[in-house]
Amino acid sequence: MNVYDYMNSEAIARHCQELNYSFTPLQTAWLINRSRRHTLKEKHRAYGWVMEHMPDEEVDLNLEEAAGGKAVSLRWFLKEYMRLEGACPENCFQPDFDWEGLCLAGIAKQEESPC
Fold it and tell me: Which contacts of 106-114 are long-range, i.e. CB under 8 A and separated by 24 or more positions?
């Protein structure tokens, strides 16, 4: 997978390629998420590639109330994120949709750390 294709700025993508910059799994997932040129299906396919081909890492979500402040696995988070996006009603893609509340509710149900 070419992560540079997921960057919104062609100039920055070109610059990173010239530097031969290697993105971490978390950085790669963030770039995929922020891409304005890819469909949800394409993004989910790319998240799958990240989970399959890149090392897992802990992600500190800074959600002390919902998850006791514990870090979770990036793979777990991406799976949960894709599940929430897949189950999402059409209105969740509106700018004012409460994604944080939806994610907090899903993370709060996690009984043990997936890491």
Answer: 106/80, 107/61, 107/63, 107/66, 107/67, 107/72, 107/80, 108/65, 108/66, 108/67, 110/67, 110/72, 113/70, 113/71, 113/72, 114/72, 114/73, 114/75, 114/76
